[in-house]
Amino acid sequence: MAFSMHSHSGQFCPGHAQNRLEEIIDTAISRGMKTFALTEHMPRDSDNDLYPEETSILPLRPRHEAFLVEAVKLREKYAGKIKILIGFEGEWIRPSYAVLVKELASNPVVDYYIGSVHHVHGIPIDYDITFYQKVKEVAGGSDELLFEDYFDAQFEMLKALKPKVVGHLDLIRLLSDEPNRDLREMKGVWEKVVRNLKVIVEQKGLVEINTSALRKGLKEPYPTRSVCEEFLRMGGMLTLSDDSHGIAHVGTNYGKGIEYLETLGVKELYTLEGKSTNMECQVKVQSVTLASVKESFKI
């Protein structure tokens, strides 16, 4: 039962991703996906948070609402072929965003949101090296100090939002000087990582194995091996995502991701059962064997 809990489209994330939502769903079906989550980036509420290619926040909220309408339509259209989950990727730019995330999540068609951190000190950490160097200087001039600030921001996000899925937990590695470094080598950083993992376990959240790290040149998916081993030791639950930004990314590196999970000794993954599939209108965690994911996925 192959699945992905994290995806984007060019239709609703223009300039950031490619292709229409329906094309992406068709591709997911062709790759053997049985569950596929639609999780466009949430709208932001300040022009200060715009990316260089954006000019105004004004189109963002209407685009989000249009996404939800289209997602419901496609969920119904493809109900016999694939289970569609409807969500969004939450942005933790500053604590005030908690109100906006919760407001967006209150829409009854939303099954869940991903808890992600793409900004530290209000500056993007994965957009490009220029922004990364800027925020590193703000943090004190070293990767280690910036990593600590990143995991502190993530801790704030976890406590405030309690997300059902935590996105690319160690995304901060991407543009660092040593992106494949074992986080245990940085004592202060590792203490914060362990603290955050304990919170996720307490909240019964899912940490995604995000294979987009591999297409971006990292040696391992997010999160790195030491993080996964610690999380599993705590009894944590892992899920799986391609973090696709168009049809070219759907299921990308899933073969390597499955091998990675096998080397970690993982036999069971977890996904979610959407509100539309049960009478209680509550999202529940569902277990999926890694063997079934491997069997149904089409390379």
UniProtKB/TrEMBL annotation:
Pathway(s) this gene product operates in, as recorded in its UniProt entry: Amino-acid biosynthesis; L-histidine biosynthesis; L-histidine from 5-phospho-alpha-D-ribose 1-diphosphate: step 8/9
Residue ranges of domain PHP in the record: 5-212
Entry GO MF terms: histidinol-phosphatase activity
Listed GO CC annotations: cytoplasm
Name under which the protein is recorded: Histidinol-phosphatase
Pfam families for this protein: PHP
EC code: 3.1.3.15
Similarity comment text for this entry: Belongs to the PHP hydrolase family. HisK subfamily.
Hydrolase in keyword set: yes
Reaction(s) catalysed by this chain's protein: L-histidinol phosphate + H2O = L-histidinol + phosphate
Annotated GO biological process: L-histidine biosynthetic process
